[in-house]
Structure formats: C-alpha cells, structure tokens
Amino acid sequence: MDLIQGTLDLLILGTVAQGPIHGYGIAQRILLLSREALQVRQGSLYPALHRLERQRLIKAEWRPSDSGPMAKYYVLTAAGRKRLQQDTAEWQRYAGAVALVLRF
Amino acid sequence: MRKRAEADLEREIAHHLHELTAAYERQGYAPEEARRLASRTFGDAGQIKEEVRDEWWSAWLHSVWQDVAFGARTMRRAPAVTLAVVLSLALGIGANTAILSLMDVVLWRDLPVPSPKQLTLVHWQSHGDPQGLMDYQGGELRDTVKGTTTADHFSYRTFQALRDGLAGRASVAAFTFTDPVSLSYRGHPTVGVERPVSGEFFTVLQAHAGLGRFFTAADDRAGAPATAVLSHRFWDRALGANPAVLGQTILVNNAPCVIIGVVESAFSGLSPGDPVDIYVPLHNADWMDQIPGGLANDRFWGSAMVARRASGVTDAQLEPVMSTLFRATWDGHVMSAGTEPSIHLVPGSRGLSFLWSDYQRPLLVMGGLAGLLLIIACANIMNLLLARAAARQREIAMRLALGCSRTRLMRQLMTESGLLALAGGCASVVVGYATANLLGRFVDPYFQPIPISLDTWILGTAAAATGLALLAFGLFPAWRTAKVTDLSRYNGRAGRLLIVGQMGMSVVLVLAAVIFTRNLLSLRSVDPGFDPHNLIVFGMRPSTSGYTRARLVPFYHTVEQRLASTPGVAMMGIGQPRPLSPFLWGGAQVQLPTDTLLVRNYRVTPEFLRLLSPAVTGRIFTSAEVHDGARVAVISDDLARRLGGRDVLGHTLRFSNRPFGRNPIPLTIIGIVPSMASTSLVDWRPTVWLPIDTGEIAPEVTVAIRTLHAPLTVMPAIRQTMRAIDPDLPLIDLVTMEEQIAGGLQRERMFATLCNGFGVLALLLSIVGLYGVMSYQTSRRRGEIGIRLALGALPRNVAVMVLRDGVTLVVVGVLAGLPVVWLGARYAEKELTHMKALDPLSLSLATGVLLAAALAAIAIPALRASGIQPMEMLRRE
User: Fold this and answer.
1) How far apart are CA B703 and CA B692, in angstroms?
2) Inter-chain contact B15–A69, Cβ cutoff 8 Å?
3) Residue B96: inside a domain, yes or no?
4) Res B473: pLDDT
C-alpha cells in the first residue's frame, strides 16, 4: 500500500517517540506494526529523516547497535514531541471524519 | 560541517545495508547472495543520497526564509526603531561614501593617461620674492610657510631650454592657465574655456586623439596657421559630436582657427573637472597680445610646464639639472640676494596640484567628521538594538526552552541586523550619490562640476561600510542576547557607556558646525571696503567682438551715456579688473623707500572709483585727465601708510617693474581712498587706481553700476540697453555684487553647510540614543522608584534624581570629547580665515546647544518617573 502524502513524517515521529531507533529499525517497525501493509521505501525514508532532523523535530546520535557496529539513532526533541501530539490529533480528527462520511 | 554530514550519511546507509544483509542471512541466504539481495531491496544509494542532500538545502533555505520573514515582522512591529536605524545608517554611510568618493576623485585618483606616475609638474621655489627677473607673470603664485614662494610659471625661453636640454631624460610640454573665450561655429556663438598649450602637450601626456590629429611643433610657432583641438565634451555638447567638423573653421574670439582634432573621451584634461573646451597652440594664445613681445619677451613668465620622466630617472636627479638650465635663461638679476628661484618638481600623476593641495585639508577634516558621524550612528543603532534585545528577553528565553539552538538564535538576530543593514545600505547609496554630486558642484565655482559617478568604488565603499556597521551593531547584541542570562544588568552599563561616547563625539561635530557657521557669517559680514548693496557688475570683451582701437573710444562713450540714463541707474563706471574677481592679473610693484610692494592696480573711469569709494582725501582724477592720459594716481590708505601717511599727496609714485609695457613712469599721487578687499574678502592688498586708457585693447573690461533700488529690478533694463547698443556683444557674468561675494565664499559655504548637516545629524542621533537609554532605564527602575515614593520621596526628588543621572552622563561625555575637540581644532584652524578655532563663545554655544537638547531628552523620562503611582507599582510587584 502506498503511503498517503504527508503521513510519512507522522509515522516516523510516532515510531521515534517510542525510543531511540535507527533508520533500518524505523522501516522495519512500521512494516511490522502495520502488519506489512505500509512499506516505507528507503528512497523516501532517508530524505524524510534528514528533513525532520533539520527542522529540529528529531535529533540523532551515534551509538553501538544491537548487532555490533555504530548506528545513527534518532530520538524526539521537545519540539518534535509537541508536533507529534498536534499531528496525531489532527490525523485522528481527519480519519474519524473520513470514516463518518464513508460509513454512510 | 558539510563534510561530516556527508560521512555520517554514508555510514548511516552502510549500516542500513548491513542490517538488511543480516536479515537475509537469518532467512538462510548465503552471505554473498544476502548482500546482493539487500542492495537490490535498498535501491539506488546514490539517488537516495542526492535526495537527502536536497532536503538539507531546502531546510537551510527554509530556515533562512523563516529568519528573514521573522526579521521583517519584527521590523514592522517596531517601525520607529526600524526607521531610526535605517536613517542612521543611510545618513552615516551615505555621508562617508560621498566624502570618500570626492576624496578619491580630487586627492587620490591618477589622471586617465598612460603611466601617470611618470608625470611631474615643474615649479620654481625661492626664499622671498625673486624681484627683478620678470615684468609680467601669469599663473599660480603662492607664499608658503616661512617666506618660501612657489610658482608654476616660467618664461617661454626657460621652457625651450628645459625641453631641449633634458632630451632623453624627460620630455617637457608647456601650457598656460585657462581663459574664457567666445567661440562661434557656423554662426552659432557660445562661450567656452581655452587652454593654450605647446606643440608637445598631448605627446607628453600620451593622450590619444579621438578624431583627427594633435598639434605638432609646426603648429606651435609664430606665424603658423591658427589651429585648434577640441575637448571631447565640447565637441559632444556644442557640436553634436559631428565628425565633419574636422578641417572646418571655428571662431575663437572672432579669430578663425581650423579644427584639426578632438581629444578622446577618456582624457579629462590636467585635473578632474578641468573646464577646457578648446586647446590652441601657445603661440596663438589670444591674451598674449597684451604683452609686449609676447612669448619672445623673456621677462614675461607665463608658461607652466608638465614633464614626463624617462623610466629610471627620478625627480631628485632632474631638479639640479633643470635648475642650472633655468638659471641660464634669466634676463636680469634678482634685486635682493638669496631670492634666486630654483626648480622644484611636484608629482604630476594626479594633475594640477592646486586642486588637491587646496582641498586636501578640508576634505580630510570633512572625512574625519563624517567618520565620527558614522560611529555615532552605529553606537545609536547598538543602543537601540540592545534595548530591544533586553525587551525581547522573555521571547528569547522561551525559544531557548523550546529547543532553539543558540547558534540558530544568533543567526536569527544577525539576520535581523542584516536586513536593517541592507535597507540602510540601499538608502545610503541613494544618499551618497546625491551628496557626492552636490559636493562636486561645491568644489570650485570656476570649474566644471567634478563628475562623481556611482561607480564600483563608491558601491564597494558603501558595502564595506555596511558590512562593518553590521558587525558592529549586529554581532554584539546578538552575542550578548544568546549568551547572557541576566541581560538587564549588563545592558544598563553598555548603554550608558555608549551614550558617553556619543556625547563626546557629538560635541566635536556640533562645535565644528558652530565654528564654521560663525566663520561663514563673519566672512559674509566682512565689509569689503565698499558698499556691496545696490551694485551690479558685468564684463565685456569688445575687442574680441570686432571693436578696433578707433571704434573703442566712441563705443565706451555710448555705453556710459546710455547706461547712465537708464532708469534705476544712479551711476556707472568702466574699469578693470572686476572688484573681488579671483584673478590677480599682472600685478604692479610699487617702489617703497627700502622695499617694493606687490599691489592690485585698477584702471578706471572716475565714476567707477567714485561709486565704489565716495570718501576721498585729496581728489579723484577727472574725465579730462582720463582722456589726456594724465600721469596721476589715487592710492588706498594702507598704501599711503606704507609710503608715509597723508603727506604723500602730491608725491611721486614709482613702479619697480614695467606693468604697462612701458618704462616705469613716475605718477603723481592726487588722492587717497579707503582700502578694500581685492581678490576675495580675505585678501586685502594695497591698491593703486589709475585712469583707464579707453583706447587700449584690453582683454576684458568691467562695467560697474550703482543702482537706485534693488539691483535685480534694474537688471532687465540694463540688459535691454546693452542689447540696443550692440546685440552681438555678450555680457559676461552679469551679477549683483552680493551674488559675486557669495560665489567667492564657495569653499567656506561648503564647509559650513556640511558641518551644519553633520552637527544637526549628530545632535539628533545622540538625543534619540539618550532618550532611548534614559527611558529604558527609568522603566526598569519603576519598582525602586515606587518604593522610594511610598517611603515618602517627593515626585520632585525622583525627577531630580533621574535628571541628575542623565546630566552626569552628558557632562562626562562632553568632557571626554574635549581632548578630541582640542586636537581637531588645531588641525582645522588653518581653514578658518576670520576666527580662532577654540574661542569661549563657540565652545559655550556648542556645549549649550548640546546640553539644552540633552535636557529635553532626559526631561521626558524624568517627568514620567515622577508621575509613578506607588500603590499601583507595589501591587504589580
């Protein structure tokens, strides 16, 4: 299933909110949690990650990964947490509204 | 920075591939196969990197745009601050740019000719006046420090000797001063400026002909056909840049000359703003007809010289050789030993030296003042931004708490300063351009306005100044804001310090304004020795309009009769030279008992003298004496004093040179009149009045008219009368005497106007700064003041407290400025003709104005502080 425009940032923020995680981990977790429905292509993942980093919604640090070598782990900033709350609420209102319309 | 980001991205992608490969391996693929699958799943790494880089870019652009938009919003929210900052910058930078551009053109820029550094101007220098060597001189002569006389004119024979004697070491060309002429091309008359030059002139300067050819030695000899070379400007403006003028005839003072060439457009003449329209060979110079023998007269010193050194030759090597050659050409001996002149070479790369030597000091003074103004402006801006930064402390603290990095915050604040600097910089280019043009016009009334273009130099200067200002007022508050948590305590001290500095510099500028204005006013009120009101003068050159000797006497008679009976005219006279004209022509040497004295000599009709000087001891010569060429003279009372007081009436006046082309004739002194200013209001020189020889072909005669009422109302009638007498005779510089006096004070006026502008701006800027700091400080002390009032302090006490605080700042500032004032005054003193730089009146005026303005600025916050309601304040605390 293709991602709806603009939801990738929200998905990344939501995933990062659960704890420090690297790029590969983010893609895997989204795939896993969506029961393999949402496949994030690397071609969109990394630009999005760097965009969010530049916007200071997430920040990164290098630390050893579970498998051994150093990996770039992303965590949420204060501004990112605030944005996540706003965007989640927005998304729920949107999804709810769409559901209301379609139930008919 | 960028490099690390690239390396990080590389590692991040490598890690992703590593994890993918590991996952495939866990699914049972062989390592080789797993790696292949991983890289296929991942996709094009290069493409992904490219997209990530795009994100970096747009994020950066986005944040810059955010900064700019935010900055613009901040600027709009505080329009008064924004306007104050932009105006401060525009005026501060604009004034500096203008002065610097003018200094560049006048003081520093080389002539636009090849290898200008090889050019050298030939002057002579002597200790004391080298009397006895010359009867006529034409050119610049100045008495410099310690009795040294420097001049730029030589006999033609000296020029020939130097030209021929230096062959191989230097090439030499001669020229003379410029002279106004009437020009007529195909029946279209106009006036222009002529410079006679020797045949080598253009070769030595290595100027190129835009059209046709230049003079050769064959054109510049006695009896050669008359030729002329046009300046590019004249050819362009007066002749419509028509190439067909080559070989055509142009009338120069009614004498036909063949146009042989036009100078290239880049050649500006011998100085910036050189007004020359037409060059003629030296031997063809019109005015030399006045001198017996002309160029062949070795006692006529009227040729200036410019030389081009051969490479490897220095001025120091040339000077003794030239001095020897010079000495061998003298016709006569100096009257007092030790006054023998010797050659003195002056760098010629910047052209004629008098422009830059006259304007160096004034321009440096102006540059210094403009620099102070810019510093004041920057201090002001720093103050404004500091105060605003303090007011924005809460906003900034909140942004820091929300995760805004300090560098980002610094950038934000720098962007705001940058926007202000950009706006100020743009405005300053406009201000600078306008001011520079104005200044160029101010430089000298006898020159073309010096063209000062908005070139890369001026723009570069503005940009550099803007950059400096940005650093000065942008970085500092930004740094403090981002770094210091308790900004308020710090800001108070910095602001106060800035105010002290500003006040110190303002007192310098205000004092300069006061001094130069007083200088101008005192000059204006200088009594020229005659009544300048209701007086009209104009010049005419009948001899260049075809009047021969036989026609001149009846012509003057008609002019006298018709003008005297024109309505509104009380009296009119004819004479020469024009009173208060800057040219000192010839100059007669009067023999004193033990010495000689250079005097201004007028040759006039009795009415000319009477309308200038009604008071006379003894008598003025009569018309009959003028007609008969009587050997009588009226002298000024300062000359009478030098000759022995009142009893000189009836005595004999002798000249030590031959000013009128005859052997020295003894004259009988018949009258004494009050002395008067000669070439300018500041140049008073003993004067001799002689009967005019109306039959003589004079280069220019002056008509002076005393009017019955306001001179401007009589002027049309005068024009009409003259047109009725001869419609083809141009009236030269028809002005009122008051206009002429004002024109002669151009330099003083430039000084006064600029200083006034600077002073007013400095005052305004400092007062705004002072007001800002004082009201900011009292607003911060509201709590304290509230408590004081609650504890029983009277509102009056509070006001006095604030006032005292502010006045202390101002007084300390003024005191701090005094050493600068003292230093500056010593330097500027030489520009003051009628004043001492540091007199008590000027000092008290300047400090008084500053204190009064400062008091007004402090009074408002002081009153506001005294009006604080203690209860309200305490409740708020």
Assistant:
1) 12
2) yes
3) no
4) 61
Query: Do you find a cis peptide bond into B577, omega within 30 degrees of 0?
Result: yes
- Which is nearest to B478 in space by CA: B425, B417, B395? B417
B46 at A interface, C-beta within 8 A: no
d(CA B267, CA B17): 72
Residue pLDDT, tens place only, A52-102: 888 889 998 888 877 777 889 999 998 899 999 999 999 999 889 988 888
User: Whole-angstrom Cα distance, residue B450 to residue B235?
Assistant: 19
Residue with tokens 């699958």: B37
Q: Do B676 and B636 contact (CB within 8 A), yes or no? A: yes
B139 neighbors B176 (Cβ within 8 angstroms) = yes
Considering the domain boundaries, does residue B866 fall inside one? yes
- Contacts with A56 from chain B: Cβ below 8 Å: 403-405
CB contact under 8 A, A56 and B54: no
A36 occurs within a structural domain:
yes
Q: Across the interface, which of B11, B15, B59 has its CB nearest the CB of A54?
A: B59
Contact B60/A at CB under 8 A: yes
Q: What CA–CA distance (Å, rounded) separates B398 from B73?
A: 18
- How many whole angstroms separate alpha carbon B67 and alpha carbon B459? 26
B642 shares its domain with B697: yes
Looking at residue B807, what is its pLDDT? 87
Flag whether B432 is in a domain.
Answer: yes
Question: What does the alpha-carbon distance between residue B533 and residue B570 come to, in Å, rounded to a whole number?
Answer: 13
Among A9, A24, A28, A67, the residue to mutate for chain B (most B Cβ within 10 A) = A24
Question: Within B199-345, where are the H helices?
Answer: 201-205, 232-238, 315-327
**Which residues of chain B fall short of a pLDDT of 50?**
445, 487, 490, 661
Interface predicted TM-score (ipTM) of this complex, two decimals: 0.86
CA B121 to mean position of chain CA atoms: 23
β partners of residue B652? B668
B55 Cα to chain A: minimum distance (Å): 6
Interface subset of B 319-358, CB within 8 angstroms of A: none
3-state helix, strand, coil in chain B (%, to 5): 55, 15, 25
Number of domains in chain B: 4
Any chain A CB within 8 A of the CB of B406?
Answer: no
Amino acid at B122: V
Residues of A in contact with B11 (CB under 8 A): 62, 70, 72
Vertex B21: Cα angle to B17 and B22 (nearest 5): 115
Q: Are residues B725 and B753 in the same domain?
A: no
DSSP letters spanning B558-570: HHHHHHHTSTTEE
Q: Is B54 in CB contact (< 8 Å) with chain A?
A: yes
B10 touches chain A (CB under 8 A): no
Asked whether residue B227 falls in the same domain as residue B339, the answer is: yes
What integer pLDDT is reported at residue B693 of this predicted model?
A: 78
Retrieve residue B748's tokens. 């003083």
Is A7's Cβ below 8 Å from some Cβ in B?
A: no
Closest chain B residue to the Cα of A46, Cα to Cα: B52
Q: In this structure, is residue B181 part of a structural domain? A: yes
Residues B301 and B167 placed together within one structural domain of the fold: yes
Q: Mean pLDDT, to the nearest integer, of A39-63?
A: 86
- pLDDT computed for residue A75 by the predictor: 92
Q: How far is B60 from chain A (nearest CA, A)?
A: 8
Residue of A nearest to B51 (CA): A47
Interface check for B65 against chain A (CB to CB < 8 A): the answer is no
Q: Which of A22, A67, A78 sits opposite B402 (nearest CB)?
A: A78
Asked if B371 and B339 sit in the same domain, the reply is no
The C-alpha angle with vertex B111 and arms to B105 and B112, in degrees rounded to 5, equals: 105
Whether B657 contacts B591, CB under 8 Å: no
C-alpha pair distances (Å), B705 with each of A26, B227, B564:
101, 38, 8
